[in-house]
Amino acid sequence: MEIEPVNSGEPLRTDADLLRWARFVNHGVHPRRRTLWVLLLDADDVPRPVIIPIEDVPDLPDAQGTARIAEALASVLEEEAPAGSVVMMLERPGPPLRAQADHAWHTMLRWSMAEAGVRVRAVFLAAAGEVLAFALDDAA
């Protein structure tokens, strides 16, 4: 699969734009450890210049850990991108199929972000060179 480049000054307004970003960041790699990648978008959906990697996340999320991530992101957004949002991608080893642990991460991230007042534009799973989008109803 050809990886389309992402222009850092270009707004990411559509689901296709967000998926293109996730594929660009993953770049078709087969990860060896779990990493949660976070992109901040400003109020106009333009990416901020830094992508935040949160490395060595556990197999299963816990409420305290995801709450700390959400609180930190709320603080960064307040300073760097008021009225902005986040895009997240959980990258992990293994097959490109959504497992129960992946759904648990998605649900816990969405819940923690909502509690902290962080608007989530999209959550992706990256595994074995593939990127899959989570739908909002996947978090139910």
Whole-number tally of structural domains: 1
Can you write the helix and strand succession as a string? HEEHEHEE
Our estimate of the beta-strand percent is 25-35%
CATH topology: Cytidine Deaminase, domain 2
| Average pLDDT figure | 92
Helix content: 25-40%
Radius of gyration: 14 Å
CATH level 1 name: Alpha Beta
- For the terminal residues, how far apart are their CA atoms? 31 Å
The quaternary structure here is single chain
Number of distinct beta strands: 5
CATH homologous superfamily title: Cytidine Deaminase, domain 2
What does the overall shape look like?
A: globular
List unreliable stretches of 5+ residues.
none
CATH architectural designation: 3-Layer(aba) Sandwich
The largest pleated sheet is described as:
5 strands, mixed
* Order of adjacent strands in the largest pleated sheet: 2-1-3-4-5
Q: Output the structural class.
A: alpha+beta
- The helix count comes to 3
